[in-house]
Amino acid sequence: MARTTSSSSTRGSKLSRLVKLLAALLFSTLVVIQFSLGSQLSKLHQYDTTQINGHDTHEQFANRGAKQNIAVAEDDERLITPSTSDGTLQGKERLWQMLTTRNVTQLYASYWESVPAFDTVLTNIHRTNDPSPIIYGLETCEEFQRITADNPSQRRIAPAGLFNTGTNLLSVLLEYNCQNPHRVAKFNGNAKRGHGNEWQTLWGKHTPARYRGAYVTAKNPKYSVDEILPIVLVRNPYSWMKSMCRNPYTASWQGQSNSKTCPKLKRESNLNQWNEVNVRFGPGQTHHKSLGHLFNDWYGDYFYNNYTIDDGSERNTTAPFPRLMIRFEDIIFFPKEVTEAVCKCAGGTLGHRADDKDVANGTFHYVVRSAKAGFGHGPQSHRNGLIDSWIRYGSVNPESEYSSDDLALAQQVLDPLIMDAFAYS
User: Fold this and answer.
1) Which candidate, 137, 151, 205, places its Cα nearest to that of 342?
2) What's the burial of 100, exposed, middle or buried (CB within 10 Å: 0-12/13-18/19+)?
3) Contacts with 66 (C-beta within 8 Å, 6 or more apart), sequence order
4) What are the Cα distances from residue 135, in Å, to 97, 225, 268?
5) Residue 157 is inside which H or E element, if any?
6) Segment 30-49, tens digit of pLDDT
7) Among residues of the chain, what percentage have pLDDT more than 70?
8) d(CA 7, CA 10)
9) CA 356 to CA 178: how far, in whole Å?
10) Helix (H/G/I), strand (E/B), else coil: 231
11) Contact criterion met (CB below 8 Å) for 147 and 322
12) Beta strand extents in 162-262 (DSSP E only)
């Protein structure tokens, strides 16, 4: 009996030591977790403070990149407030006005210096002679409002466009700045619920328009295809093709990962053969002779009517249905003008949402940070905020990134009517 008691005591002692050991390990783990969380919260606090002060991560990344690639004088690391008195604001007034509405007060000197003057931007986006956005299809606005006149609260606006054309940016601009007054009234003045802007068209924002009415992305939609006004984003194809090389989404073609030669419209091994592109959309896969032909085919569905004349050699440019087509470049450099035109076309009103606390009442909500989010949009380094977009898309004519042979071939492929309509010729 005594032996049993001693054995039980020994087991109890071992169990006690084990419990103490586990408790110590648990305590150590909690300390590590607490330290890690504290570090992360500190970083988040710094990030939020940075945003409030107007020096967002795009500026930090840009300056880090500058330090890695070139020797930067200490003077260029200072924070400045662009001013007419020292010349730092000259030619950049438009961008600075946008930034100040989002409480940006200072930027790094070297970062601001890399922003192109607006005259340079206009040259590179082919708008030197007419510094305004291109809104194609305004003649269809009246028809859209007529079709939806019986129940205007059902009117919707939604972006559409090929990959890498700014559909997310347009969606955010519309959501914060454009409201369908009939729909807002239906929701008792709640513009956040009743603004009437959708993330994408019923058939999918990237899906070719030939599937309009034949394919839907949502079950039991609450509106019809005739009650939605597609706003189609078009991008300079020379810039767009290079962007597809960096992030092809669901498109695939030979040599797409070769940054030095992509895009190749004809195969390396046989210059008489087109470099075919296959794309997976919601309804299925499509096939195109090349990346340039994909551009023609996709936008042709929105640009041309569905029927041809006589032998099929001519196409009717009458709108196949109410829609607007706008340029990717214009939502970067003319966001307010584009948003206002789109909103008016659909019978909406441009205005500040009462629940939007990021900008002052009555102020247009410019998108300063990247509108893209999620793994499907490629790595963070390939996404752009407003300042980065001005630098990337306003500094260089995208045609300069092509060899003379590749440029000549692209000019043969790209649809001349579409190119002329959007001043890309």
Assistant:
1) 137
2) middle
3) 72, 76, 110, 111, 114
4) 23, 21, 38
5) strand 156-161
6) 544 444 444 443 333 333 33
7) 76
8) 5
9) 12
10) strand
11) yes
12) 178-179, 228-234, 251-252
Contact (Cβ atoms closer than 8 angstroms) between residue 164 and residue 247: yes
Find tokens 């092509």 and name the residue. 402
Predicted local distance difference test score (pLDDT) of residue 195: 95
CA distances 74 to 56, 59, 79, 105, Å, are 20, 16, 11, 21
How far is it, in rounded angstroms, from Cα 59 to Cα 46? 14
Q: How many residues does the chain have?
A: 425
CA atoms within 13 A on the CB side of 232: 23
Instruction: Identify the residue whose tokens are 């498109």.
Output: 251
Alpha carbon distances (Å) from 255 to 241, 244, 409, 422:
13, 12, 17, 29
pLDDT the model gives residue 222: 92
Q: Residues 363, 353: contact at Cβ < 8 Å?
A: no
DSSP state string for 254-316: TTTT-TTT---SB-SS-TTSB--EEEEETTEEEEESSHHHHHHHHHHHHHS-S-EETTTTEE-
Distances (CA, A) of 420 to 2, 328, 378, 417: 102, 15, 31, 5
**Contact between residue 343 and residue 178 where contact means Cβ atoms under 8 Å apart:** yes
**Listed range (48-52, 246-250, 268-272) with the worst mean pLDDT:** 48-52
Identity (one letter) of the amino acid at 288? H
Q: Which of 45, 57, 41, 42 is nearest to 104 (CA)?
A: 57
Dihedrals phi, psi of 59, to nearest 5 degrees: -70, -40
Contact 161, 205 (CB under 8 A): yes
Rounded Cα–Cα distance for residues 54 and 408 (Å): 44
Please give the full DSSP string across 364-417, using - where no structure is assigned. -----S-S--SGGG--GGG---HHHHHHHHHSS-GGGGS-HHHHHHHHHHS-HH
d(CA 351, CA 177): 5
* 343 phi, psi to nearest 5 deg: -60, -45
How far apart CA 93 and CA 353 sit, in angstroms, is 26
pLDDT of residue 21: 65
Q: What angle do CA 126, 127, 130 make, to 5 degrees?
A: 150
